[in-house]
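Subject: Sanity check before I submit

Could someone independently write out the structure tokens for this chain? I want to compare against mine line by line before I put it in a report. The sequence has 448 residues.
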Amino acid sequence: MAKLAAPDTLYAQSGDLSIAYQVFGHGSRDLVYVPGIISHVELAWEDPFVAAFLRRLGDAFRVIVFDKRGQGMSDRIEGVSSLEERIDDLRAVMEAASSARATIFGASEGGPLSILFAASYPEKVERLVLCGAMARFVGSEDYPHRPKIEAYIDDFVAAWGKGALAPLMEPDRGYEPGYPEVLARFERMSATPSSIRKYLLANERIDVRPILSDVRLPTLIIHRRKDRAVARDNGRYLADNIPRAIYLELPGRSHLPWLGDAEMIVEATVRFAEAVAPEHASKDFDQRRLATALFTDIAQSTAQLAAMGDQRWREVLDRHDRVVDDLVNNFRGNIIKNTGDGILALFDGPARAIRCAEQLIAELDAIGLAVRAGLHIGEIVQRDDDVTGLAINIAARVMDQAEAGEVLLTRTLMDLTGGSGIGFIPAGTHELKGIPGSFDLFRPADTD
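---
Independent answer below. Compare away.
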């Protein structure tokens, strides 16, 4: 097969980093391809199988491809990127490519990123396609569909750059001569062995199971029956837990969508994108989305009011409001309401919300105010200038469990912070007033 000419590589600015991306194709709809553990937007076009797969997508879509931060042609970084930062990169690429709304195609470990993006920004996602994806990156007692990381990480990293992926990606008819060496070069050009180790360890905390029910967009889940890298039970789990998802199981064993019968994957994606969207898919984009809720209040505010008097207390609250307004804005949050002695704020990133809560408590303590905070992530419903939803109630009840000067958060939130550098200390299992079940709560603790 002859090599096909590559489109120009462009750069989107995501914070201080430059994220490499390309745009090609002549379809009327946009599709953003979110890569798995390896990516290199320019090297991809030197591989005739990848190039053919991308060109087929380009026949039906205006396709946007990119390299995640730390990989391929994008900026290298210290440490690893968090799921939240990878979402920032996806947003930045869509904005740079002038894509207001697109089908998001999440391959392999790009799946959890795509799921979180679709739940957080449903107005930007027309449809969601998950190919060879998983809900949790590593296995656990309650998620037996993936191996535990300690079972493979040392051998995998030792083979990185020499064809670590080759045994897992082989198609039914075997590789063409020399293709394992192509994969080995892809590994080397994507990342170094040490960065892959850090990347895998950061991914250990990725777990989007609690938010699958918040994905209300048309979703197609494609999985090959004998996938060696990510077993088909992962795809079936996603289909069972994403509302109204369509599950398509294809023959074959290669994990890479461009090997084996790649045309079947392209055809399924195109047909899904062209189908008439069900009624539920067009409703409530502006009203329902995933967000991290932060509740705070001033400990013993009534006693402080009595001790200070009205005038002095108003001055203290004014200083409180200025500190809070600045911090929430700096962490890209949005204050929904001031509760008199605290706030409710929403954030589009879980780690940003936690960092904001920690800094808020520290800065308010410096002016003599002891504050407590509670956080949870879940679906919220916008109602004019207010918000509702169980996630709001949970965040408020989590705050009720906190002591003065303490930040508490749920396991759901913790599981979406992999790679953020935030560690966590268990704070016990609690029953939250008026909310069924019990909740494992945690305190943040920096590990950087």
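---
OP: Matches mine. For the report I'm noting this point. The chain has a mean pLDDT of 91.
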